[in-house]
Design goal:
The structure holds two protein chains of two kinds.
Chain A (H helix, E strand, L loop, with lengths): L17 H11 L31 E2 L2 E6 L2 E7 L4 E2 L16 H4 L10 H11 L8 H4 L14 H6 L2 E6 L14 E7 L18 E6 L7 H4 L40 H10 L10 H12 L1 E8 L3 E2 L11 H6 L29 H19 L2 E3 L14 E3 L1 H4 L13 E2 L26 E6 L12 E4 L5 H4 L8 E2 L21 H11 L6 H11 L3
Antiparallel strand pairs in A: 1-4, 2-3, 3-8, 5-7, 6-13, 8-9, 10-11, 12-15, 13-14
Helix pairs in contact in A: 7-8, 10-14
Chain B lengths: L1 E2 L5 H13 L3 E6 L1 E4 L6 E6 L2 E7 L14 E9 L5 E2 L2 E15 L5 E3 L40 E6 L11 H13 L4 E12 L5 E3 L4 H15 L6 E12 L6 E7 L3
Parallel strand pairs in B: 3-9, 5-8, 11-13
Antiparallel strand pairs in B: 1-12, 2-6, 3-4, 4-5, 6-8, 7-8, 10-14, 11-12, 11-14
Classes of the chains: A alpha+beta, B alpha+beta.
Chain lengths: ~525, ~260
């Protein structure tokens, strides 16, 4: 297991020196064990240059970028060619707090923002980088600025504050009568009980804390080909509709699916995260959307395995294959796998080193674990309730079924226990430590007259009610829209609440949650596979 | 769910007699049991010492919605003369299974696979990734009619005590499409609450006001899907009628525009 704090930094790698770097990277990795299946994390590179993209620095985004990370290198494809960021609304500090979109969507971090980068920005700027802005870069705006304790959720878990109105409001602003009551049980951040910002304030608000999602490979995220219909396929509720066309939308973009178009998300992010005084203009929205749609991100080199993007290589890997892949396809095991590898690496290629052969075999086995290792999936809302039964004997690829990204093909909020107790990560108090849980905790009580939550009953606890803060539905509590599996190596921690600090912890969560019983080799192979995506 | 007592005794007795007379039809509440196989698991339930086969795990496209451990199920099915056994259970066909909402932690039996309980057919969808499609493909919808448009009634079916689920869109979408096509001027929605005569002689009714709740929910769903122009007339029939699963329904009557 490799804690996030030990993961190495990254540096931009000039494409011209790529081959030379491959050699040095291969030398840097730890030796592969005899069975060829060790999960490798290299030692830190000596030179660390994160190439932080500051708002308004006027650089050009070339067509191709590569960044080193702990597991190899990430590729960033700017598919429409070089872009001048001067004056571009994605890169300029167009709000009041000095942030730009790029502040939290850094190319080196897979267009998300890793905890490692956040901590480095704290160290380099003394906590004055705009990402630590009071509005959501602190646990609550009224806490002392610059005190690490005020920013603990960002510095410990990589989480930004998301304030949401309670009760929820419909698109027209009218309150939705929720099916449950919510009480604040624990509020280490201090915002939910705050008289100005909290649940009992003049504008009742619930603050939850979430990770920024990657702004890349978005044709898959907002696809309109599969699982998009007037009614959400998992709940029967009406799908959100495009305000311009009236057509139903895919709702797989945000953690709580509260917005479904790139434009509406940009507008909200501008007004909240960037603290813009006025709404983004149509011209700005067009430019932001165009840029977001042309960015593809994936790992291009895996330490030990070497290049992931060789000619005639596996279609599963690399940003160019994401550009060429078909969006909105339910992955299968015959023609369009979720992550297709074909026969690549089934047999060693001439010149491959024993270490390379072993790592490639491990990655290949990890892909097979992902697709074919069955286990019992139980008590997961909006998965076990949609015609599969509870429990259902399936695989990782059951839920993570979208071709090329591993997202859900249908509107995909579900509760696997990342935020709902008893499965969510919690630090039980005990007499021998002063450690306290970071996350808020809410007690949910489903009202009389509505059915209890099918797996958690009428009263239960959650760190983040997820979709239910938008829908008001009891059985939506703790449901979160799943994310894409791309650029994972570059953007720890994982899950919407950052509760898995590393890919090892992510795999541990599933193993524990579903009693999978991964062997050590399966666990290692899966990690090697995931870190190659 | 509400159990009838004295007031409904006569109804219950009559229903019980009917059930006895038609001994092929069964209705019972019991724990579901899942039995693994080398392919997909199958679902069973026991009543009066007899194990019954309900169906197998497939996917979202199947009519059969498998049960849930942790909840009891209401099973409404028919045992054919000379019915075969699958997974060690006597086959109920047709069968309707409703997961009851209240938690029942005592329902927690998962039987491991045994060679003698292999499925006698190939599962439409294996436990791994799909074969490129869902397990079942619904027939294409009939072509929409040309003017003059008739009034049409669409029916939404429900599990016992159920409201909207993942299966509701298959009923709602045709109604939505037709209403749009004919530029409906009025939509009349009637929701029904029902009851079931169990094979034990007991009669169980769905929760209070469920007919109204269903009707109001369907109206909200159609409006939420953008069908806001027509006039809506929404009503619930909350006195439960006892009988088959088809009684648990909402009727959507669509009156075309001029």
């Amino acid at each position: 297991m490799q804690p996030a704090s030990e993961l190495t930094g990254r540096r931009r790698v000039p494409v011209g020196s790529r081959l030379a770097f491959v050699g040095s990277a291969l030398l840097a990795v730890t030796a592969i064990m005899a069975n060829g299946s060790s999960a490798q994390v290299p030692s830190s590179p000596s030179a660390v240059d994160r190439e932080w993209w500051s708002p308004g620095d006027g650089r050009k985004v070339p067509e191709w970028l590569e960044y080193e990370n702990a597991y190899g290198r990430l590729g960033v494809l700017n598919a429409d060619g070089p872009l001048d960021t001067a004056g571009h609304p994605f890169f300029e500090p167009i709000g009041a707090n000095g942030r730009a979109c790029v502040s939290c969507h850094q190319p080196s971090d897979g267009m998300s923002l890793s905890l490692e980068t956040i901590r480095e920005r704290w160290r380099v700027t003394g906590g004055r980088d705009p990402i630590f802005a009071a509005i959501d870069g602190k646990n609550c705006p009224n806490l002392p600025q610059g005190d690490p304790a005020s920013h603990s959720l960002l510095l410990e878990r990589g989480l930004f504050r998301i304030p949401l109105p309670w009760p929820p409001r419909a698109a027209d602003g009218t309150p939705i009568e929720p099916e449950f009551t919510i009480e604040v049980v624990r509020d280490p951040g201090g915002c939910n009980l705050d008289p100005v910002y909290g649940l009992a304030s003049a504008n009742p608000t619930i603050s939850v804390y979430r990770r920024p999602r990657p702004v890349a490979n978005l044709k898959y995220v907002v696809q309109q080909k599969f699982g998009v219909s007037p009614f959400v396929g998992k709940t029967g509720e009406p799908a959100m509709r495009d305000p311009e066309t009236g057509r139903p939308l895919n709702m797989n973009m945000m953690a709580d699916a509260r917005l479904a178009t790139l434009r509406s998300q940009a507008v909200e992010a501008g007004l909240t995260h960037l603290q813009m005084v006025e709404r983004l203009s149509e011209d700005q929205l067009e430019r932001i959307e165009a840029f977001e749609r042309q960015i593809y991100v994936a790992q291009v080199l895996r330490h030990g395995a070497g290049s992931l993007v060789e000619p005639d290589g596996a279609k599963a890997f690399g940003p160019r294959n994401l550009l060429l892949g078909e969006e909105g396809v339910l992955g299968n095991n015959t023609t369009r796998w979720v992550f297709p590898m074909g026969d690549v690496w089934r047999a060693p290629a001439p010149g491959d080193s024993p270490e390379q052969i072993a790592m490639r075999e491990s990655i290949r086995r990890g892909q097979e674990v992902f697709h074919f290792r069955t286990f019992w999936i139980r008590d997961s809302m909006h998965l076990n309730t949609v015609g599969l039964g509870n429990p259902t004997k399936r695989t990782c690829a059951t839920c993570h079924g979208m071709h090329m990204t591993g997202m859900d093909s249908a509107n995909g909020w579900m509760d696997i226990g990342t935020t709902n107790l008893p499965w969510a990560r919690e630090t039980p108090r005990n007499p021998w430590t002063d450690e306290r849980e970071l996350m808020p905790l809410f007690r949910i009580t489903c009202k009389d007259g509505v059915p209890p939550h099918p797996y958690l009953g009428r009263v239960f606890y959650t760190q983040d009610p997820g979709r239910a803060l938008i829908s008001g539905r009891c059985n939506d509590v703790g449901t979160i829209v799943m994310q894409q599996f791309r650029g994972l190596a570059a953007r720890a921690p994982y899950f919407s609440n950052g509760s898995a600090a590393s890919l090892s912890e992510l795999i541990d969560f599933y193993d524990r949650r579903y009693n999978i019983g991964f062997t050590e080799r399966e666990r290692t192979d899966l990690l090697n596979f995931l870190s190659s995506l | 769910m509400r159990t009838f007592s004295l007031a409904a005794l006569s109804v219950a007795l009559a229903a019980a007699q009917a059930a006895q007379a038609s001994e092929q039809n069964l209705a019972f509440i019991s724990c579901p049991i899942v039995r693994d196989t080398s392919s997909v698991p199958c679902w069973l339930s026991e009543f009066r010492g007899q194990l019954y086969y309900l169906g197998i795990q497939t996917d979202v496209s199947a009519d059969f919605n498998p049960p849930s451990l942790g909840h009891k199920v209401l099973v409404e099915g028919t045992v054919a003369a000379g019915a075969e056994e699958i997974c060690g259970g006597l086959v109920l066909d047709p069968v309707k299974v409703s997961v009851l909402p209240e938690l029942a932690p005592e329902c927690n039996t998962l039987l491991m696979a045994e060679d003698r309980y292999e499925l006698p057919f190939e599962a439409p969808r294996p436990p791994g990734p799909s074969a490129g499609r869902l397990a079942f493909t619904p027939p294409p919808p009939p072509p929409l009619p040309e003017a003059p448009f008739p009034e049409r009634t669409f029916v939404v079916a429900y599990d016992f005590d159920g409201t909207v689920t993942f299966q509701s869109p298959r009923f709602l979408t045709p109604a939505l499409d037709y209403a749009r096509h004919v530029r409906a001027r009025r939509i009349e929605i009637t929701g029904y609450r029902a009851a079931v005569a169990l094979s034990t002689g007991e009669v169980v009714a769905e929760r209070e006001r469920l007919g109204t709740i269903r009707a109001e929910q369907v109206a909200r769903l159609l409006q939420g899907a953008g069908l806001t122009e027509p006039e809506y007339i929404v009503r619930g029939v909350d006195r439960p009628q006892t009988g088959t699963p088809e009684l648990r329904r909402v009727e959507i009557r669509i009156i075309p525009g001029e």
